[in-house]
Amino acid sequence: MDDNRYTKRTIMKEDVPSAFLNENRHVKIYLPPGYNELLTYPVLYCQDGEDFFNFGRTATQMTKLILDEGLEPALVVGVDVDKKIRNEDYSPDGSRFAAYCRFFAEELVPYIEARYPVKQDAASRVIAGDSLGGTVSLHIALEYPQLFRRVLSLSGAFFPSTRERIAREGDLSWLQLYMLVGLQETAVETSRGTFDFLEENRRTLELLEAREADIVYEEKDGKHIWGFWQKELPGALKLFFG
């Protein structure tokens, strides 16, 4: 994996201004091998951008899949978050949740699409996150189906407030989801208490299936850590960009 063909890549850095959050949000943009501004590319948008790049090794994994397995070249946009207020941004009951969702859909996406040669249709955008990042990604898709209809969730923190939101939808046949959860995630300690992520994902899956969402759901040996998610990320990338 550390072959220099895979680790040599171009990462751009941007500070995206947000009126909704009243701040600039730091963003990294991975440009795929052979990047050409005369072409257009699909995009993977990631919550916890720093973690997706550092712990998920997303840029390296994407490069390897493009070079070795013919994956469609795509940009990766990693949106950084201040871990001290991550819950406020990502949790449905967080004080900044509504503003963050609006920033993502109404400010970030237009910013990227004005500056980079990306495909501007919902089928070409994937929104990804781990834990609460998976939660906010699903909520953004539900609120902005014209922008996002493909969600990549790594051990999403899908609690009752998210299921209540899903229950308000009648037909989710337009929504494509990849859901991964670890079999050892039955007592995950978080800043808000200890939760059974496995059971919460199973309950959420039932609701989504009842509304005919298009779901690839996987339960595998693993804990609520990037060591687990990193290993499974290539399969998810191939699902959406293969």
UniProtKB/TrEMBL annotation:
SUPFAM superfamilies according to UniProt: alpha/beta-Hydrolases (SSF53474)
Family annotation (Gene3D superfamilies): alpha/beta hydrolase
Stored InterPro entries: AB_hydrolase_fold, Esterase-like, Mycobacterial_A85_antigen
A Pfam family: Esterase
The name this protein goes by in its record: Esterase family protein
The organism of origin for this protein: Paenibacillus ginsengarvi
